[in-house]
Amino acid sequence: MHSSPFTSTIVTLAKATAATLSASNAALAATAKANSNAKLRAFREVVKSRVSARRFEPNCTVPACVWRDVLRLTLTSPSGFNLQPTHIILLRSPAIKSTLSKNAMLGFGNQYRTVDASAIAVFCADLEPTKRIDRIFEMERQSGMREDGYLAVLRVAASFLTGESNTLSNNGGRGSSTHLSSFFKQTFTKALSPVQPMPTMENVESWSYKNAGIMAQMYTLAATAHGLSTCMMEG
Length: 235
What we know:
Layout: H1 7-49, H2 64-74, E1 86-91, H3 94-104, H4 108-116, E2 120-125, H5 133-143, H6 148-162, H7 180-192, H8 204-225
Antiparallel strand pairs: 1-2
C-alpha cells in the first residue's frame, strides 16, 4: 500500500506548528513571570521604604497633581461590600494646620509634625454606611461584574454585618451602638455558633473605624510610592 505524498508534509507542518505554539507559550509565560517579578520588586520596595517620619521639612510644597494621584490610589482601598465608609479631608492651609496642632494634637511631636507637614490627611469614618448601599448597589449592577446572587443579598447582608443602628438615640440624633437590632444579631449569631462558624458582630463604630484604618494604610503606601514621608497620628 502506497502512502499519500502529502502525509509527511502534513505531519511535518503539524509538528512545526506545535513547536511554534509551544515556543510562543513559553515566551508568554516568561514575559508574564518577568512582569510579575517586576511588580513584586516595586511593591516590596514601597513597603520596605515606608517609615514613620519623626519630623517633616517645613515649607515644602507638593504639587497638586501629586496629591490628586495619591488620593486616587487611596480610594482603591478595599472595604466591606465596597461601601468605602471613609471621607478624607486633605488640609494644606498653614492657618488650619496651626489651629489643628494647637487644639487637637497631644504632645509636642505631633504638634510639630502637624505644622511642618505639607498636608494633613484626616480620615473620617462614616457611622451611617447603610446610606451608601443604594448607590453602591446601582454601581455594581451597572458594571455587570457581579453575579445576580451577590446583588440579591447585598442590601440585607451589608445592613446586617455593618451593625448600624436603624433607631436614633438622644445623643444628637446619632444611632446607638447598643440598639435592639444589634442585640438580636448578636443573640442570633451566638445561638448558631455551636452549630456552624458565625461572624463576630461588631457595632458600626468598630466596622467603620476598621475600614478607615485600612484606607489610611493605603494612603501611606501611595504617598511613599511618590517619595513622600508619612506618619500616622491618632491625636
